[in-house]
């Protein structure tokens, strides 16, 4: 499938349901893909952070991506995370993704050892040359310990290396500087890199990013409430910023589920991903809320709090869900 230019809309990073043995639950994953597409999303991002990509073996990554592609069945573009420490390892994932039929790749800067911007640029250029798929950069400095500077992203956008950026840096100023560097909110389509997609990974400031000129949203919480983020996006695109802000505020309240796991007892990743999966289980989308080892599971009390937040947000389980099947 050819990517729209620019890539836009709501593109959730798809959770990876697991069975009790920690293997990919492909049946639940297919249900999740249908849940997202039925919610109106414009694309899917498989094998991102919310997909627990760092916890999956190479074989599990391929299984998950293949299941997402099969379930999507060409209805929306599928972006595949090719996320690993060094260029050769990322290339292996990228070639696997291309062979399975992914529509685009998403990669971070190299990590584990610190890299210079020139090395990061060479990394992205080598990936783009080696695998003939659109390539998006994933800016997530909390995980890779390198911040992609606006000047570097602009350089790689202008020379055609990058087709877009998923910004999960939390640095709203840097994101705004990049939008301005590429022509500003109203001039980006005739700027130095027409067609370059800017996507925010923030669940909490999606309306602000869209107002600034971002093209789309990649929200982990979008697994739970894809239709809510689609309503937010549609309101923003129509210029109804009051309605967009109201939807954003409802989603911000729902996002508090990521803190249901006590900080004194478990990591923030365990709490957030456990909450998303618990919510999907409660909503009847996936069979169980298992997270990858060694992440700790949510307690019954935390799961009940997730359920309360779902109810407050107007989300209720359907009758006759498949969880017992």
Automatic annotation (TrEMBL):
Its EC number is 4.1.3.3, 4.2.1.41, 4.3.3.7. SMART domains: DHDPS. It comes from the Bacteria. It is an enzyme of class 4 (lyase). Keywords: Lyase, Schiff base. Gene3D superfamilies: Aldolase class I. InterPro entries: Aldolase_TIM, DapA-like, Schiff_base-form_aldolases_AS. One of its GO terms (molecular function) is 4-hydroxy-tetrahydrodipicolinate synthase activity. The keyword Lyase applies. Belongs to the DapA family. This is Dihydrodipicolinate synthase family protein.
């Amino acid at each position: 499938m050819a990517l729209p230019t620019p890539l836009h809309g709501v593109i959730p990073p798809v959770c990876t349901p697991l069975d009790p043995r920690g293997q990919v639950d492909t049946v639940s994953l297919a249900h999740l893909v249908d849940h997202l597409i039925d919610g109106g999303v414009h694309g899917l991002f498989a094998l991102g952070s919310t997909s627990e990509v760092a916890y999956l073996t190479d074989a599990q990554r391929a299984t998950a991506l293949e299941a997402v592609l099969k379930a999507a069945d060409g209805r929306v573009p599928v972006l595949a995370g090719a996320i690993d420490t060094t260029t050769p390892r990322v290339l292996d994932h990228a070639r696997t993704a291309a062979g399975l039929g992914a529509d685009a790749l998403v990669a971070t800067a190299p990590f584990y050892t610190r890299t210079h911007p020139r090395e990061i640029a060479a990394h992205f250029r080598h990936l783009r040359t080696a695998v003939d798929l659109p390539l998006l950069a994933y800016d997530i400095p909390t995980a890779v310990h390198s911040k992609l500077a606006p000047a570097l992203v602009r350089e790689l956008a202008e020379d055609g290396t990058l087709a877009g950026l998923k910004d999960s840096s939390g640095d709203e100023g840097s994101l705004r500087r990049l939008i301005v560097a590429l022509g500003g909110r109203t001039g980006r389509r005739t700027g130095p890199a027409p067609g370059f997609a800017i996507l925010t990974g923030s669940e909490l400031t999606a309306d602000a990013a869209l107002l600034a000129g971002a093209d789309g949203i990649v929200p982990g919480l979008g697994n739970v409430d894809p239709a809510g983020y689609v309503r937010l996006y549609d309101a923003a695109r129509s210029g109804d910023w009051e309605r967009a802000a109201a939807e954003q505020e409802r989603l911000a309240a729902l996002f508090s589920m990521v803190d249901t796991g006590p900080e004194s007892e478990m990591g923030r990743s365990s709490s957030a991903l456990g909450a998303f999966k618990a919510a999907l289980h409660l909503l009847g989308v996936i069979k169980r809320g298992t997270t990858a080892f060694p992440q700790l599971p949510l307690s019954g009390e935390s799961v009940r709090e997730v359920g309360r937040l779902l109810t407050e947000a107007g989300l209720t389980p359907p009758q006759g869900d498949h969880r017992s099947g």
